[in-house]
Amino acid sequence: MTVHEFKDSKLSKRLKWAKHGTFLAVGTGQWGKTVTMNALAAEAPFRGRNVVLINYSKDFVKKGYPSNYRAEKWPGKIADLYKIIKPGEDFIILDDAIFMASSRDTQTKENKEIQKFMTILSHNDLFAGISIQNTSLLDFSMMQSQDVHVLHKFMDPVALQFERPSMKLKQTVANAMLVHYWKRYPDVNAKSWTWCSSKPEMVQFHIPWWWQSTMSKAFRGVIPK
Ligand SMILES: Nc1ncnc2c1ncn2[C@@H]1O[C@H](COP(=O)(O)OP(=O)(O)OP(=O)(O)O)[C@@H](O)[C@H]1O
Ligand SMILES: [Mg+2]
Predict the structure, then answer these.
(1) pLDDT of 36-65, one tens digit each?
(2) What are the start-end ranges of the E strands in the chain?
(3) Which ligand 1 atom is nearest residue 213's CA?
(4) What sign does the dihedral 41-45-51-52 (CA atoms) show?
(5) In a domain, 20, yes or no
(6) Is the Cβ atom of 67 under 6 angstroms away from ligand 1?
(7) Is 93's C-beta closer than 6 angstroms to any atom of ligand 1?
């Protein structure tokens, strides 16, 4: 029993009346970013919302996800966005956002449209969860327009050297705190700990009961477009 449940967190209090916001889950592959975003989406501030897994295969999401989940393909034109996203109703997950907002693709039409959409997320009362293994891989416009709550999972020390300067110290602290908690709570699954640098605090996210290991590999054999 620990006192780090989301419902007791500063982040949860901060979100109690929030109608929009962005969560950035960052850390090395398989350390729990996707699980954390999905666990977060089930928490009280988002109750009643539908969860939209962008660019996941529709058939994939029909197998084993809760009934409030759906897969949508990011549209070719921003004007078509409201065909797939419902203002005030959705929690959007941009998992492995490098496929949509890579720092290397900053001038592409798709990337520019996502940048614009991020600026009107608040107008549409939407929450977005974004996962990326290192923020240097992500177009920084994804972090510029809304309240951003950074959820750190462990980052490999080699990858950490290549973090954006603004994130390096935060992730270094996150790694140190995570190691500290693993030692302090050896019986707790190490991947459940999440350092939220925007508060700062440690929060535990439990793996959803319906989670299957295949859900951690949604892009197995698939290159998202
Ligand atoms: N909170 C948790 N409690 C228990 N196990 C977890 C937890 N989070 C993750 N895991 C385990 O780790 C696996 C990988 O987690 P996840 O898919 O979230 O990683 P990821 O950081 O998104 O990886 P990638 O960058 O490769 O997509 C899960 O399938 C699960 O087995
Ligand atoms: Mg993932």
Answers:
(1) 999 999 999 999 999 999 999 999 999 999
(2) 21-26, 50-54, 69-72, 90-94, 127-132, 148-152, 193-196, 201-204
(3) 29
(4) negative
(5) yes
(6) no
(7) no
Q: Per the domain annotation, does 142 fall within a domain?
A: yes
Domain extent, residue 148, equals 6-206
pLDDT at 76: 82
Average per-residue pLDDT in the chain?
A: 94
Please give the tally of structural domains in the chain.
1
CATH assignment at residue 118: 3.40.50.300
Give SS3 for 36.
Answer: helix
In this prediction the pTM is: 0.96
pLDDT value of residue 91: 98
Evaluate if residue 1 carries a pLDDT over 80: no
What separation in Å is there between the alpha carbon of 34 and the centre of ligand 1? 6
Decide the pairing of beta strands 201-204 and 193-196.
Answer: antiparallel
